[in-house]
Amino acid sequence: MKKIYTIIVIALLAVPAFAQSNYTSLQYSIGFGAGEMKDFIGQVSFRGFTIDYRSMVRQDLGVGLDMGWNVFYEEKGDDVYEYGNITYSGKQWHYSNHFPILFAVDYYKQTNGKLTPYAGFGLGTMYSLQNTDMGTYTFERDAWHFAVRPELGVLINASPGLDFTILAKYYYGLKAGDLPAQGYFTLNFGFVFGQF
Amino acid sequence: MNRKINFILILASLAMLWGCYPQGPDYAEEMDVVFTTHNDEYDFAGKATFALPDRIVKITGNLEDGEDPEFIPDVTATKILKMIEDNMTALGWQKVDVAANPDLFLFPASWETTTVFYWYDYWGWWYGGYYPGWGYGGYYPPYYMYSSYTTGSIMMTLIDPDVVGGNGNPLPQWTGVISGLLTGVFDQARVEKAIDKAFTISPYLQTN
Known about the structure:
A: mainly beta, B: elongated
């Protein structure tokens, strides 16, 4: 948990002042597991948020940080699980926490309307913490992954001073530590503060 | 100024997601866990008889040399031992007396400690006259994290007296653990279900 708090503190410190040509977006994030991540937890996650910061180095190009947290959870049935010559019987509860911290670059298509579509790429790290709870036991695995993240989104200027964003991301952390590769899609909805 | 306030409010709302962290079990029964481990090179099918004591010791972790162990109440032990015997019989085993040279010993215990060490002396009162060499300085092979068993767990261990480790003590060929069910009020239905499960998930114990 100490690592998690550290990530949160870093994320909060990274929130910038509301300067021209910078914006920060706070997003609610829905997660969908993929690959081996989905094998571990098949349920959609409705618990997550993302903080995006972009500095507009050009009118159509922003660079910055992408940080967030998504927790996936699934209650498994009363079943039999085998690990080598050890067999367990009972219910399991699976938890998978993911904390990406990525450097991000976005390209913004210039339009005259209220919508600004953009596409981007992120590169950095992702901390994953997975727990399998059974009775009073928990089996914990964690890893810091090298992570990549493509994204597609749109900025919406609803009215002067009121901006939103809707975007889709795909986080992929390479196999690391105790964990196999971890991948998940997110669908994010957020408020935008600042100028883009 | 309003934008800053909004920013802080939204940030606080997102932080409140921490409060929504998913929880685990809702009922005590959902905490019931059975696990087993075995020596997958051991030929259970080639054996036929087992011996079972008539009391269940408490593994307290602090038994001194020469001391008698503690036992769980007879009224509870009798029921548990019957459940174990019924399961073994259903798998084709014949229960015999400890003096009848059984193929396997089944050691039932109530786990009351978190210590790693597990001394055979806990059963010296039962097999001592037949296997006087066991139990001196040996520790239970660390098949699976004995240090983290929940207090009140029921543990069943099958031991072949002819298969011994380097210290001269016999090695466990099968271990079944019912986690934590001897704490609080004895719930016969839950215990029976769990003991049955331990044998159900161990089909390799079937003998001819």
